[in-house]
Amino acid sequence: MTDFIHRLIEQYGLIAVFLGCVAEGESAAILGGFFAHQHVFGLWQAFLAAAMGAFVGDTFFFILGRSFADHPFVIKLRGRPGFSHAYRLVSDHPNIFVLSNRYIYGMRLVGGIAAGVASITVARFVILNAVSSMVWAALFCTVGYVFGLGAERIVGQALARHERLLIALAIGLVVAILAWFVARHVAGKERDKDARASQSAAHE
Known about the structure:
Layout: H1 2-22, H2 26-37, H3 43-67, H4 72-78, H5 83-92, H6 94-100, H7 108-117, H8 122-155, H9 161-203
């Protein structure tokens, strides 16, 4: 079973890193760096897959907001917690917002939609998003690679490689679950803030 999982990671690991980074992606990029340390694939390959996934994901949400703003699906997304806050930020500080939005867990989707709805130009968004994606991928892939070094020192080099890969998968799952709970907490606070702001505006 472990050999099968090992072969699966070797064959489809980079695709999984890419697809994981299209979404929120931090855990996918970290795992990519860890697998690179285990010589499943090269570190530059993990970086490229993570950066491309991050760029494609954010650009997709931007295009949704820019070209399909009146579509029911996009209208529903615009009603999600944090959208109004993201729209204010991208309107006031477009460069800083596009460069930093990827680092705010749970805000990436609504942030991309907000950037598309806002007046920021396509060329500016693409350039800033490319820079942000490359820096983000380098950061989290490096974290995964360094984690691999630390794990090897802790558990020792005698531990079989496929066992280290299984440990990485388990850790990645825990990180993803924790990040999901954090995102729900942040989204809940943002929803309460927007609700209070709407109530204050209604009273005025």
